[in-house]
Sequence to fold (475 residues):
Amino acid sequence: MTLRRLCLVLPLLFGCDAELAPGAVVGSTRVQPIMLRAEGVPDHPLGWQDTQLDVECKVATAADGERRCLPTGVSSLGMFVDEDCTRELLYSKAYCDEPTSRYGLITPPPDECDGRVEVVELEPIAEVTAHFLRSRDADGRATCVRLEPENTRLLNTQAANVAKFRRKRAVDPATFARVVSEERTAGVPVRVYDVLEDGARIVREQQDERGASCWVQAFEQGAYCIGELGYAKFQAYADARCLTPVYHLPPLCGAEEQAPRHVLETSQRCGTELPSARLYGVQEQSESHERRSLGGACEPNPDGERVYVRGLELPLSSLPAVPLTREGSARLQAVAHVDERGQRTVLHYWDRALSMVCTPMRAADGSYRCLPRQYANEVFADPGCSEPRARVGCEAPMAGQLASLPGLCGMRAVRLGAPVASGTSYVRGGLGGLGGLGDSCRVDTTDLFGTSGSVSMSAEELPATAFALFEQVVP
Fold:
């Protein structure tokens, strides 16, 4: 599992800035890169700092329709504190001993197909007496619905240690640095840069030879920029026994669903530097089946939508290869792609001292460390959540190997012990199933890795100081 997926699953609970910003480090007088610096390897960008406002920022579409470097802040979760659903409820990561942002970010509901972000000033609140949600009545008219008191009590219990805010007032979008043009590099992958009005250049995306967004990925067979990948559709299958998955490209809001170009299957043995990969084309078919509930019956899909199944295997060499470099004169070695401008995208680091692949991430002690790229999910063997285990998803895990666990205020590293017998697992209550936001211990009904191939193992937590340090350099 990549950190990007973890950030999608648990965006509130630990900083998604742990995933490194790609490539460009062309700053300006106002917007300048925040760097991570470690001995023996080139500096690496972590994010961007608006030095005029003294806030970290990220390019997005502002409320006025312009792309701007908007401050990173406290995000709304689609809940409100008033019966008209006009004052959003926002949660902070204040329990992580971080300074609370003075800004909140409000995004429209997904069904409104509006990607604009409104920036607001925040007003702290001590207690939420009622939660409200936007909904629609039988005629499709927008309504504001109050949650049942029991749901409010549960939410307040789970977020007992989280700072809470509501909208105070909107901030003029012109406050933030604006994107005035774009620049593109030659070759494959093409890097597309947003150019800000003060001259900063920030990578927006990478594209393949067809102009589709792609991501550079390294495998045992080489490195490639792969786009238009099909993802297995949840609870959807090609056969009447619900065994063969179907794939799709999640469409942009309001757009028609497009056919995926490839299906990629990877496998990796625990402790190896790179996974192996197999690439497939896709085939279209007109019928599919679905399970309408977890463990439910396999039924024909009545919508008759087009679906795609895995087709013939294709050689990875049919994709444009991406050359990689290895740089590093001390403990760490950076594996990176360098474009024609000399800007690099680091795919991963190799820790010579620990013989493992690592990624710079915020550790539980607040420092940035090169922690194991192998992720695990914390579960417990007992109903009291007192016997921790690490559930890992790589192949053939062995005692002594290292993995990273998500935590409230950063990642934790563990050394795996012996595999334990399968059986009922438990997770701590609270937002996202992580401990610290509630005292409940409940049966685990989810698995971040999927149920196939995951193994529960005993685990010994290691101090952050066992891992290579990155110094954060803020302008």
